[in-house]
Amino acid sequence: MRDMSRWLLPGLLVLVVVMLVVLTTPSSTRSLRYEASLEVLQETARIDVGSDPFIILSADTDSDDQPDLLVTSTGTGTLSVIRNHGKEGFGKPQVYSLSPGTFGVAAGDLNGNSHVDLVVSNERTSTLTLLLNDGNGLFSSRIDIPTGGGPHVTAVADFNGDSVADIASPNYHVNSVSVMLNIGDGTFGESQAYAVHKQPFCAIPVDLNNDGAIDIATTSYTEGCVDILWNDGDGGFNTRSSVELGSG
């Protein structure tokens, strides 16, 4: 078996060839010149997933302290979960058939059982698919919930400080971000939509003002700006700021 680091990361083999050349100048002064060449040998592996793979994410889905890979495939409407077996490398993808236009994927513990669950956005059906982990890295329990038009790259974070994961979904076709607060058992209350600039593409959860509450930053695909939704501390986002990035 090969070492895991050689399998996962590009292996670097550095061959340094030093050539010592003695040069004679017109003044008969001798100097030494060193020339070095660097050769990089890279090892790669191919893992086949569905057509039009779009988002790739890493998360430990089977609690073995090894980062697994999650890949959404828009063309086939599938999610591939690729288990990491350490020194043995990656296993065959476990493929979950979802909805047409499978787009983004986010990971977090949605039902409080200390296992990583998944949230997949389905652009064409305007739904989010929740895949609940059975504790062994399998996702046999599925819940579909409606959201705004064209959800893209979603975010999972605790927005209201109750120690359970909530969801924020940027809705590309209706220019909003939907926030769904977790009741605590993996079910969610009614979503609240917050207006942002046109065609929000992805949502990033981060505490931007160091007040202990997770804010949401989202990008506008066509208007060249970032919108920041400021958390009021209870999971509400009624205050918005924008940062212009410029065109091009």
Outline the structure in words.
With 248 residues, the protein is mainly β. It has two domains: 52-146; 161-247. Helix content is 2%, strand content 41%. It has one helix at 4-8; strands at 19-24, 30-35, 53-59, 68-73, 78-82, 94-97, 102-108, 117-122, 127-132, 141-146, 155-157, 166-171, 176-180, 192-195, 200-206, 215-220, 225-230, 239-244. The strands form five sheets. It has a four-stranded antiparallel β-sheet, with no helix packed on it. The longest helix has 5 residues, at 4-8. Residues 1-41 have low confidence and may be disordered.
Radius of gyration: 24 Å
Distance between the termini: 48 Å
- SSE order: HEEEEEEEEEEEEEEEEEE
Overall mean pLDDT score? 83
Count of DSSP strands = 18
The largest β sheet comes out as:
4 strands, antiparallel
Question: Spatial order of the strands in the main sheet?
Answer: 3-4-5-6
Q: Supply the helix-strand structural class.
A: mainly beta
- Poorly predicted tracts of residues: 1-41
Task: Estimate nothing, just give the exact number of structural domains.
Answer: 2
Number of separate helices: 1
Strand content: 35-45%
* Percentage of residues in helical conformation: under 10%
Shape: globular
